[in-house]
């Protein structure tokens, strides 16, 4: 990553800033983008089965972003108390045109109430950038300002295959609040072929309790081979249910290599 000057263990925690690359999934797939990845998550998602070892040698299981989600990696994150430090780092890799800015994690909405986080978002909106926030959609947030309507919330709501409890992963109130506030916001679900029947049932239950919005299905997998194995079944489910299919290009092309 491009390093920010660490000041203290508090405030914004940046795991990595990288790009320009393309957005690999969801509604803005294919758009040239710079990613700002925040550290820390309110979930662990050990059901996703990605095994890893923490810096102190503890073996764990989580998602493919474990290095950003698990606080055990905090020493490799950079604390930041001024959003302009992040802007400066982004400027070093920004091409001569405006890319999308993708705010991801971990769970970036853990920082929603941080003044510097809001300043960062507003800076990019005011300067004509398109911002996507990749979130699990489980945390209550206040949406107050008109400029916040320009943020695209890409909500990767977790199903039972994540291993998280229903109470923790589904917050229909916050999903409703975000969809009502930002029309373009959408849900996406990562599923594999063996989980399809259960996924259909669980997605239906979620959608009954929230306003209409676009739904994308994406194939589970952290390698191109596993994505290949799951994609046809997921496409067929999307066609059957009237959802959209999104590939996961970054995994298909780069096998989930970091920083591209
Ligand atoms: S919510 Fe997302 S980032 Fe957090 S542990 Fe689950 S999959 Fe990983």
Report the sheet-strand fraction: 15-25%
**For the report, how would you describe the main beta sheet?**
9 strands, mixed
Please identify the top-level CATH class of the domain at 12-191.
Answer: Alpha Beta
* Helix-strand topology string: EEEEHEHEHEEHHEHEHEH
CATH topology of the domain at 12-191: TIM Barrel
> What's the total number of strands?
11
CATH superfamily of the domain at 12-191: Aldolase class I
CATH architecture of the domain at 12-191: Alpha-Beta Barrel
Average pLDDT reading: 93
Count helical runs. Answer: 8
Give the strand order, joined by hyphens, for the main sheet.
5-1-2-6-7-8-9-10-11
Can you describe this structure?
The chain is an alpha/beta fold. It has a domain of 180 residues: TIM Barrel (Alpha-Beta Barrel), CATH 3.20.20.70. The protein contains 8 helices and 11 strands. A 9-stranded mixed β-sheet has the order 5-1-2-6-7-8-9-10-11. Strands 3-4 form a two-stranded antiparallel sheet. Helix 7 links the parallel strand 10 and strand 11. Helix 2 packs across helix 3. The longest helix is centred in the last third of the chain and has 18 residues. The protein is globular, with a radius of gyration of 18 Å. The protein starts with 11 loop residues before the first strand and ends in a 6-residue tail after the last helix. The N terminus is likely disordered. Bound molecules: iron/sulfur cluster. The site of iron/sulfur cluster has 12 residues, from loops.
């Amino acid at each position: 990553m491009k390093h920010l000057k660490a000041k203290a263990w508090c405030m914004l925690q940046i795991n990595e800033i990288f790009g320009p690359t393309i957005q690999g999934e969801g509604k803005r797939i294919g758009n040239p983008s710079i990613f700002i990845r925040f550290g820390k998550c309110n979930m662990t998602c050990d059901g996703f089965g990605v095994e890893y070892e923490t810096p102190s040698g503890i073996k764990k299981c989580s998602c493919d972003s474990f290095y950003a989600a698990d606080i055990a990696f905090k020493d490799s994150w950079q604390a930041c108390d001024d959003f302009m430090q992040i802007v400066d780092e982004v400027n070093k890799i920004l091409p001569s045109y405006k890319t999308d800015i993708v705010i991801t994690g971990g769970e970036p909405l853990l920082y929603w109430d941080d003044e510097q986080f809001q300043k960062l978002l507003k800076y990019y909106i005011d300067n004509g950038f398109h911002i996507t926030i990749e979130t699990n959609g489980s945390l209550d947030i206040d949406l107050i300002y008109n400029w916040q309507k320009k943020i695209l919330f890409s909500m990767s709501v977790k199903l039972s295959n994540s291993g998280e409890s229903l109470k923790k992963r589904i917050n229909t109130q916050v999903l409703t609040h975000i969809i009502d506030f930002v029309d373009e916001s959408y849900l996406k679900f990562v599923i594999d072929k063996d989980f399809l029947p259960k996924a259909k049932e669980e997605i239906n239950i979620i959608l009954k309790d929230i306003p209409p919005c676009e739904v994308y299905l994406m194939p589970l997998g952290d390698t191109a081979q596993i994505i290949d194995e799951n994609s046809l079944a997921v496409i067929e489910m999307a066609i059957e249910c009237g959802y959209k299919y999104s590939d996961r290009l970054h995994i298909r092309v780069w096998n989930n290599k970091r920083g591209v």
